[in-house]
Q: What sequence folds into this?
């Protein structure tokens, strides 16, 4: 299933070409067409990191063009057509199609000749980054699966029993069961926040047991969200992110300023807490259940990527 598609047409030697880049839930695909004829197709799995696609287009003179497709910003994909070192076409003039690779490595490389001359070393850097990302995924995937399972459990219990208090208690109980299970398995079920996560699960369970009312179950996200946001803010401002910032960086494929990521996550927590309050106060209970399980995720992910952009450590090397 396609989530989004970019089309980047260009012309060369009287022929019309199109680069199509689209995203699915599991991979990014880039395809080069001449008219309606598919000339080349490449793909990369999301877990393998960011990659700039390079399509080779043979010419009538025995040479070959390089058609590079990649991010030129956080929200747009562009193409550059190169004949050797000469730029034939740019969909976004002056923009670097290797923008995202540069961000993942801590800084954007300059375009044109300099980027081409550094291709060998940057390829090694990218391969190392992909290897690091894969290792991080292998280490953290079970805790992510556990989080998704807890969210699904809360949604299903709440949906089929129509009792949000029961769903909250079941969810908190399942979370505490993970803490116990962690003592008997080698894989990491709690991520980098084992102690803090356990404390929050206990608080969540107490909250659910003490206030067994559907309204307060809805408000739990706001109350605990603001509470957590305040703790992140204290860590970011007074401890320079020594606890939370360092642990969040564990999941990221690029170096981060610990204080910035902690402060940013605090701001994210406050935004989502107030969003939860707004939805709970202005929409039906059924819509709130759908919101808290599915719809708030795209918003929080978009804000999270903006925070990562702000918190990243820029390269200190020469431009």
A:
């Amino acid at each position: 299933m396609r989530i989004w598609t970019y089309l980047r047409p260009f012309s060369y030697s009287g022929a019309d070409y199109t680069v199509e880049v689209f995203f699915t839930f599991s991979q990014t695909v880039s395809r080069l067409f001449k008219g309606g004829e598919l000339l080349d197709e490449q793909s990369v799995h999301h877990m393998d990191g960011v990659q700039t696609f390079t399509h080779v287009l043979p010419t009538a003179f025995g040479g070959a063009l390089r058609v590079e497709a990649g991010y030129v910003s956080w929200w747009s994909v562009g193409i550059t057509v190169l004949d050797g070192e000469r730029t034939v076409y740019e969909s976004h003039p002056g923009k670097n199609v290797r923008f995202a690779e540069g961000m993942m490595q801590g800084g954007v490389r300059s375009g044109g000749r300099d980027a081409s001359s550094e291709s060998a070393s940057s390829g090694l850097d990218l391969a190392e980054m992909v290897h690091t990302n894969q290792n991080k995924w292998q280490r953290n995937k079970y805790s992510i699966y556990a989080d998704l399972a807890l969210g699904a459990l809360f949604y299903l219990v709440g949906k089929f029993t129509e009792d949000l208090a029961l769903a909250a208690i079941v969810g908190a109980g399942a979370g505490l069961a993970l803490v116990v299970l962690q003592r008997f398995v080698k894989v990491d079920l709690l991520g980098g926040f084992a102690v803090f996560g356990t404390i929050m699960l206990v608080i969540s369970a107490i909250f659910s047991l003490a206030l067994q009312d559907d309204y307060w179950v809805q408000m739990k996200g706001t109350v605990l969200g603001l509470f957590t946001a305040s703790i992140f803010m204290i860590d970011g401002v007074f401890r320079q992110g020594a606890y939370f910032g360092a642990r969040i960086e564990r999941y990221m494929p690029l170096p981060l300023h610990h204080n910035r990521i902690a402060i940013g996550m605090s701001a994210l927590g406050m935004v989502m807490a107030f969003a939860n309050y707004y939805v709970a106060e202005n929409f039906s209970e059924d819509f709130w259940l759908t919101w808290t399980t599915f719809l708030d995720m795209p918003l929080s992910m978009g804000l999270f990527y903006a925070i990562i952009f702000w918190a990243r450590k820029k390269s200190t090397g020469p431009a």
In short: Residues 119-161 form the longest helix (43 residues). The mean pLDDT is 78.
